[in-house]
Amino acid sequence: MQGSPLEIRSERQGETGRVTVVGEIDIATAPQVQDAVEAMLAERVGELLIDLRDLAFIDSSGLRLLIALNNRATADGWKLSLTRPSDRSMSVFQITGADENLPFVEEPSTQ
User: Which helix (H) or strand (E) holds 14?
Assistant: First the structure.
């Protein structure tokens, strides 16, 4: 396989930013996700939703990134939300106990 398969889409609606991750967050792709989040935060959004519905795989570096973002959101006063990934990807969060501490939400209704 050539590189890690990852697609990132970012959009902003008012004060809310959305970063959609399709594919894998691993040691090779976590910096790309970080860059997309940084770009959205640079636009001074008050709320950031990271859409993980199409997450195929996450490793410890991806998990570490999401935990760090959650801690940063609390410290800096913006809101982080994560949509639940598929059961297969969600198991990583459950096995590590991260699902108890990360701000998972059901998919918000789309217009």
Answer: none
